[in-house]
Amino acid sequence: MSLYKFALAADKSVQIRQALGAEAEAYFAAMEAAEQAFFGSIVNETNQQKLDWLRLRTHLISRMSDKDIAALAGYRIDKLQNVARHLDGNERQIAIVTIDTLAAAMTDIKAQQWIGFDTETAATFDKGRRNTNPVSLIQIATASHCYLFRMVGSNVLSFKAALAEVLSEQSNILKIGIGLRSDVNAMKRDFNIALSPMLDLNWLMNQLGAAKQMGTVQIAASVLSLKLPKSKRVTLSNWALSLDKPLSDEQIQYAAADTLVALDIYHGLFEQISAYKALWPNTIKQRFLEEATH
Fold this sequence. Notes:
Elements: H1 3-7, H2 10-20, H3 24-42, H4 48-61, H5 66-70, E1 73-74, E2 93-96, H6 102-110, E3 114-121, E4 135-141, E5 145-150, H7 156-167, E6 174-177, H8 181-191, E7 198-200, H9 201-208, H10 216-224, E8 226-227, H11 232-235, H12 249-273, H13 282-292
Parallel strand pairs: 1-8, 2-5, 3-6, 6-7
Antiparallel strand pairs: 3-4, 4-5
């Protein structure tokens, strides 16, 4: 993302494309080339890092068009991509937790320094009504697994007790997600679990300069250069199925992707900005400098 495109308001870009038609891309390319030439003329040892940081930060917080996102490689659940050299290629798997596998899942989760977190709730189709349906699925991602906890039927009491140990403030594990406000409220309402400590990646992108919440698809595109599939149909599907009815493959893939990508974005973002610690906003320095050095 060039600074020129970043500074150009979205509505103005549309007007230019409408006016120039087929010549619009050539115009934008010419402007970006002029920008590159300008920066090449002013770069020196003193300002090189500041200019590089400006360009990187601009790229990270810029919203991509649907067309540009569609051209990206697809996000994979089974293997890390575009995160960091020492992590890319690592394999991982999805595990639907049962009472019998609960202990093994919790052992893995408790060993983590940070985890991806998300929840799913059965949709309400009453127009204008806030969704007060209980959380039906809790997803937790570790370095090697995405664990799906079906919070229905006979699972609830055992799962609630086990998860309280790792999700509440008595645990130092950082819970990472995107758009966590509704999840936080629902976890407190349904299970009396106060999620802490946690990081909403929208907050982190705001500290870098994003004007508003970017959302999962946009952040995955800007940080990882990957296209995260999102299906409204799956979002609105029935997550509250009884335990004798399995979740569909689409539901499993959707739920796991939303959680794993949060962890990938966290690691991928700090991999990219680690060289610019001295230029980080104070809010990021104060909260994450220690984590970023690991």
